[in-house]
């Protein structure tokens, strides 16, 4: 475990960047000088606090996030890892559009927050990266899904995350108000014994859920199917 003073100062630096993004609502990309409104795609601060708390509550030290954008959710997840205190903690981030669409702003804010040694970025679609991680034998303690948002992509994300996390692991999913996402989650709830552990208040922008993956073995008969 890291000394408490080190944890506090590292967390303060991350919080400083989060607060600046909240106050200004925009940032300039070092890569090309372009100005970006970070609020357009980012989660709300309330959701960020929930993500950070889930990391601490689960004592997670290996987290994975699908969809970096401006790094807002990544900052909260890294803050949770810092507060969990494992010096070997690691946050893996997937986003194939970071350079093209976001002028590397997400990577920029993570560097500013001093968490370069904590995160690992992959310029890849989650639907390709997750099966490759599985093949490599990688494992994670907690996941956050906020990437492609379409039913089929989210279904695949959840399918692979269910194998990359331990039984009873936590997967947080943003935009649960979207029908495609709700339907994808529904399969795992109805057919695979996943559970909803927490649901956000339904506000107009973001609705998120915390899912707990199945604890028991998957012993379904091949004819077993529940409409979802
Ligand atoms: C809503 S934004 C994420 C916002 C971020 N979680 C935050 O609150 O700071 C969605 C992100 O997912 C990325 N994305 C889209 N399709 C993806 C995929 N197949 N795999 C990984 N990331 C993807 C986009 O480039 C975008 O950065």
Write structural notes for this entry.
This protein has one domain: Vaccinia Virus protein VP39 (Rossmann fold), CATH 3.40.50. Strand 6, helix 7 and strand 7 (170-173) form a beta-alpha-beta unit. The chain is α/β, with parallel strands linked by helices and 228 residues long. The longest helix is centred in the N-terminal third of the chain and has 21 residues, at 4-24. Helix content is 43%, strand content 16%. The structure holds S-adenosylmethionine.
What labels describe this entry?
228 residues, alpha/beta, Rossmann fold, seven-stranded mixed sheet, two-stranded antiparallel sheet, 8 helices, 9 strands, binds S-adenosylmethionine
What is the CATH first-level class name?
Alpha Beta
**CATH architecture title:** 3-Layer(aba) Sandwich
Number of strands: 9
* CATH superfamily (homologous) name: Vaccinia Virus protein VP39
Regions with pLDDT < 50 over 5+ consecutive residues?
none
Distinct small molecules:
S-adenosylmethionine
Query: Helical residue percent?
Result: 40-55%
> Given the C-alpha coordinates, what overall shape results?
globular
Which structural category fits the helices and strands? alpha/beta
Query: Per DSSP, what share of the residues sits in E-state strands of 2 or more residues?
Result: 15-25%
Report the C-alpha radius of gyration, rounded: 17 Å
Along the chain, the helix and strand elements come as: HEEHEHEHHEHEHEHEE
Number of helices: 8
End-to-end separation: 44 Å
Spatial strand arrangement across the major sheet: 5-4-3-6-7-9-8
């Amino acid at each position: 475990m890291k000394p408490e003073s080190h944890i506090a100062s590292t967390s303060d630096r991350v919080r400083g960047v989060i607060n600046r993004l909240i106050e200004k609502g925009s940032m300039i990309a070092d890569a090309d000088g372009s100005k970006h409104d970070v609020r357009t795609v980012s989660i709300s601060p309330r959701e960020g606090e929930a993500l950070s708390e889930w990391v601490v509550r689960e004592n997670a030290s290996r987290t994975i996030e699908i969809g970096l954008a401006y790094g807002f959710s990544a900052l909260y997840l890294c803050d949770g890892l810092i507060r969990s205190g494992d010096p070997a903690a690691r946050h893996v981030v997937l986003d194939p559009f970071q350079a093209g669409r976001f002028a590397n702003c997400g990577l920029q804010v993570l560097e500013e927050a001093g968490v370069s040694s904590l995160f690992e970025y992959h310029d890849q679609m989650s639907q390709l990266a997750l099966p490759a991680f599985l093949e490599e034998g990688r494992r994670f303690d907690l996941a956050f899904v906020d990437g492609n948002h379409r039913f089929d992509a989210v279904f695949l994300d959840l399918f692979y995350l269910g194998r990359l996390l331990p039984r009873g692991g936590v997967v947080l999913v943003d935009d649960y108000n979207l029908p495609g996402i709700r339907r994808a989650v529904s399969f795992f709830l109805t057919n695979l014994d996943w559970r909803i552990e927490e649901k956000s208040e339904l506000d107009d922008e973001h609705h998120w859920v915390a899912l707990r993956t199945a604890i028991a073995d998957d012993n379904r008969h091949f004819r077993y199917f529940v409409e979802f």
